[in-house]
Specification:
- The protein contains four helices and five strands.
- The protein is an alpha/beta fold.
- Helix 3 packs parallel to helix 4.
């Protein structure tokens, strides 16, 4: 058995984190690592802390029954889960789905230097296009994950 690469290792942690999400449609995980190959933080998409997942909609409904009004994205949670925000400067974010424009703002503001993403299924959405524009303008390196490991199986 071969040794996995650092990209595979950190993306596998992001994939594993995504299994914590209760979202019935899109499970997203994120892992932030520093230049010394140490995990700085992890996160997954879910409702804000202290709000019971059953008290808010997890559907793509209308008005106040739309999950997008409530869910904290994996990248955002990974940033917020960091004990020391300055520890993110120069780090790499591994995420299973390309970040939206709101998460891109947080990525830029914290000084994350690189985003390695697996899926880009919303590439044509305006929020993703805005995200790519902001990340590129701010000098954040973008890399689509192309490694061998594509899933983590739990037994």
């Amino acid at each position: 058995m071969r040794q996995i690469t650092w990209n595979e290792y950190f993306m596998a942690l992001a994939m594993l984190s995504s299994y914590r999400s209760k979202d019935p449609n899109t499970k997203v995980g994120a892992c932030i690592a520093d230049d010394d190959h140490k995990v700085v933080s992890i996160g997954y998409n879910g409702m804000p802390r202290s709000i019971d997942d059953n008290d808010l909609s997890r559907d793509k409904g209308k008005d106040l029954n739309n999950k997008y009004l409530y869910v904290c994205h994996a990248e955002f949670n990974a940033i917020l889960n960091t004990r020391n925000g300055s520890a993110l400067k120069g780090c790499t974010l591994y995420v299973t789905l390309f970040p939206c424009n709101e998460c891109a703002k947080a990525i830029i503001q914290t000084g994350i230097k690189k985003v390695v993403y697996m899926d880009d299924k919303y590439a044509n959405d305006i929020t993703t296009r805005a995200s790519k524009k902001m990340l590129t303008l701010s000098g954040v390196e973008l890399e689509q994950y192309k490694e061998e490991i594509k899933e983590v199986l739990l037994k």
